[in-house]
Amino acid sequence: MPIFDPEIIKSWENKLFASILESFDEYQIEKILQKSHNLVLKEKMQFKGGKAVALNNQIVYQFDYSSVAAFPVLINEMGKFMGYANSHDFNKIDAEETESYEKIIDSEVIKMRKAEFIETISASINTETIAELFNKIYEHKAIGKVTYSSGDIKVLSGYVIYQIVYDIELFFSVFVDREGNYIRSSMKDNGLKIALEELPEIDGI
């Protein structure tokens, strides 16, 4: 039998989270997501709600957000999934390609044909397969439509690798203790650091 109107609790809880959000550093959350999950957010985090929850026998605050993240997939010449990377992972590789040679082909033509080639590869990959892959790695489902964003041809350990980047809309939660310290997110930590041999076999790649 209720002895207190739950709407009063909900109302005050909303006011509590609204006041906390005024000092919430979303930029730090974006940095943590990139470090822990290797995910780069492409859109501003949208606050969806919050509540107090019990986690490991302590009271923590759960903040729910939605955003769009870049999910870069690496594929070899045989079409096999080889792992993940973001733009920061290839800085050193790209820096090694600065040696100048005598130009014999217009670079704009190469860029145009490369873009067409990468788009052809992406068109042959089922986006539902990408969503399934994201789910199995992060133990987190993508929401909305998975869309191709960009691609490139890279070198990884002396081999040609095709980097296909997809935009994935996701809903996630961030847990913060009462001291304001980040505890974890709702996504699996270090999802991108799993050894390739531990990754699930995904049909369609």
Topology:
Layout lengths: L5 H16 L4 H12 L2 E2 L4 E10 L2 E19 L4 E4 L6 H5 L11 H17 L3 H12 L3 E15 L2 E19 L4 E4 L20
Antiparallel strand pairs: 1-3, 2-3, 3-4, 3-6, 5-6, 6-7
Question: What does it look like?
Answer:
With 205 residues, the protein is of the alpha+beta class. It has one domain (6-198). The chain has 5 helices and 7 strands, in the order ααββββαααβββ. The chain has helices at 6-21, 26-37, 91-95, 107-123, 127-138, and strands at residues 40-41, 46-55, 58-76, 81-84, 142-156, 159-177, 182-185. Strands 1, 2, 3, 4, 5, 6 and 7 form a 7-stranded antiparallel beta sheet that branches. A hairpin with a 2-residue loop joins strand 5 (142-156) and strand 6. The longest helix is centred in the middle third of the chain and has 17 residues, at 107-123.
Rg, nearest Å: 21 Å
| Number of distinct helices | 5
Low-confidence stretches: 90-95, 192-205
Number of domains: 1
Cα(first) to Cα(last) distance is 55 Å
Short structural summary:
The protein is an alpha+beta fold. It is built from five helices and seven strands; from the N terminus they run H-H-E-E-E-E-H-H-H-E-E-E. The chain has one domain.
List its salient traits.
205 residues; disordered C terminus; 7 strands; seven-stranded antiparallel beta sheet; alpha+beta
